[in-house]
Amino acid sequence: MSVDLARLLSIAVQAAPVVPEYFSQVATALIAADASNGGKYRDVLASAFVRRGILATRAAVGMTAGQVAMALPAARATAAAEATPSRELPHLALAGAEYGLGDVPLLVRAASEPRRLVTAAAAVGVGAVSAPSSERAARAFVEDLIQRGHIDVADHVEIPGWIVHPHTFRTHRLVRSESGFVLSRILFDCGFHAHMLS
Asked: Is the C or the N end of the chain the one with fewer CB within 10 Å?
């Protein structure tokens, strides 16, 4: 079973687009990958994803066998056509004035690939969550980093109004470029200690 699930997960991750609701996309692609191989684990997978809120009930039960069978090949074909060697996400320019950067934009890598699978995560209470736009998700991410004090402005003295948290470690850094300030990750916070990116 573990070998089967590892193979299905590999297929699902490659087929799922990088969007704000990424885990729901992977879950749907995983169910579709299983369906294309006979659907042996469909009930277990759907139940696990619904219990954890990764898929809304309607997303898990609403796909017919035909829709599931068509979803994966189409998603895989689109992913293969769009694939690049690095597969880096594009930068999204956010208005710098909102972050004390004046008229200089803040460039953030955004989860903005085209959605290839129709799916939704569970909402708190009843129904499904509406997927946020890539820009809204990027803005929420930046706001969270600022609130936690995880952005290092380095020696950019031209940002006098930046919110400073002196007793937190930094996971991201602002790097000046010709196009604006680029938000660049420098650490991963695993909850116990940070891992430096090479």
From this structure: C
